[in-house]
Amino acid sequence: MIDFYIGLFLATLIVALFTTRLYRLLFWYAFNSLMLGVLALSIGKSIDDNAMIITGIITIVVKAIGIPYILKNLSQKFHFVRQITPEIKVQYAIMLVPAILVFTFYLSEPIVNMIHTNANYVAISISSLFLSLLLMMEHHNVAPKIVGFLSMENSLFLLGITATNGMPMLVELGIFFDLLMAIVVINLLFHKEELKV
Amino acid sequence: MIVYFLSILLLFLVAPLLLSYMKGMKMFLLLKQPISIFQGYRNFSKLLKKETILSEESSAITHYAPFLVLSPLLVVMFFLPPLVKGSYYVSFVDAFTITGLISLSTFFLMLLGLDSGSAFGGMGSSREAFISALVEPAMVLTVFSVSLMAGDLGVGQAGVNLAAHFPKEHMASYLFAGISFFILLLAENGRIPVDNPETHLELTMVHEAMILDLSGVYLAIIETASSVKFVIFASLFASLFLPYGLEYSAPLAMLIFFIKLFFIASVVVLIEVNIAKLRLFKIPNLLGIAIVFAFLSLITFYVLGA
């Protein structure tokens, strides 16, 4: 079942790459985070780690419900452009995305030989890191760049929970605090964007 | 053998029912007075009684193209995975044969659209060629990746293997193949993100434009062909991606199979109600996503084995 959630995680990220509307992008980001939370819950349950279950619940509440809601409100407040067309044309993206995936799948092989864990988890989290980088690169508006940044954070988190069988609780809470700081900075950025207009 | 022919006959009979169920359910969700679930049969018998009028420009192709549209699809119905455990099935037919037969049917439909000599027919044919050319690579890739997971290239045998041994260890690539195949199901049957089956608006119609000049018996045959096509895709989806319930006794297994068909139809209806139709030049983007997922499914299976 963990494979299924990881597949959905990657699938939502790929669909987000082809989205041209801001609210739809936020919806896919929320779905992506929800899958991450469910994944953390199911891994935590299988290795019987209470800290990871708490992390999963916090992920679902903060990332799947809180952040998309806040971003939507902010974008309504500052009257953002809701039509976000990717800079990279779809024809090229169709070739680029499989190329990235193949590259990262082969890239992860030596890493997997070093740490003894499931190959596909590491490969998929590294490839989703690259795909979120692509999501940041292909837009020139602020809001989708932020979503790209947040999904990059999601994929790092996925790497953390799958490759290490649970980070220390303190590190995970630190990451959430970082995310909060990021949202404050994002708010400042939005103010600056509004001043420019 | 009896069960085999009976299941094909039942699938053929349930085809118009499924389409009118979708139409009625859609009207219900849009708060209209829904049509009866038997409207498909009524339309068929009405069209049989009507006079058949042909365009003056049309050649002999119009006389035999409707039969050549329907017959490859009927042949495909014999190659579908079995509905019931222990029934006979054709095990050696692979993805290329099924895709080829479906595109043979599409080819004659396009020829039919061109033959009437009206501007609409040609426009519809060119659009259909555009869409079906993009559908084919994704279709072949998807069915091959599922066949690899099932361990057999034959589609019928793959359905049986999947029901016997669900690929738990390949869940990720199975999921990608499922997403890709569902997009293809919408695109090949002309459902809403690609084509609206209910309008006759010249900017949007694809399938309706090709059959605009037909009437009477020929129209009835083409309508049957489009419902049979939906049933083929839905039952391929049901037996390849929802492979449950084959182990029960014959009537129960068949009931479960038809419940799965109606479930797929309901999902399609929910998508139709919630999503606006795409512009024609945006359709390659949607089918591009399908190709990406199909390729991703193969790659995930080969490289990661997940």
How are the SSEs placed, and which strands pair?
The complex is a heterodimer of chains A (197) and B (306).
Chain A: H1 2-17, H2 22-47, H3 50-77, H4 90-114, H5 119-137, H6 142-163, H7 169-196
Helix pairs in contact in A: 1-2, 1-5, 2-3, 2-6, 3-7, 4-5, 5-6, 6-7
Chain B: H1 2-29, H2 39-49, H3 61-77, H4 95-115, H5 119-150, H6 155-164, H7 171-188, H8 207-210, H9 216-241, H10 250-274, H11 283-304
From the alpha carbons, calculate the radius of gyration of chain B and give it in angstroms: 19 Å
Structural class of chain A: mainly alpha
The domain count of chain B comes to 1
Largest interface: A-B, 25 and 25 residues
Note the main sheet of chain A: none
Q: Can you count the helices of chain B?
A: 11
- Classify the secondary structure makeup of chain B into a structural class: mainly alpha
Q: Shape of chain B, please?
A: globular
Count the beta strands of chain B.
0
Indicate how many domains the architecture of chain A comprises. Answer: 1
Estimate percent helicity of chain A.
over 70%
Q: Are there runs of chain A of 5+ residues with pLDDT below 50, and where?
A: none
Runs of chain B in which pLDDT lies below 50 for 5 or more consecutive residues are: none
Helix content of chain B: 55-70%
Mean pLDDT of chain A: 85
How do the SSEs of chain A run, as a string of H and E?
A: HHHHHHH
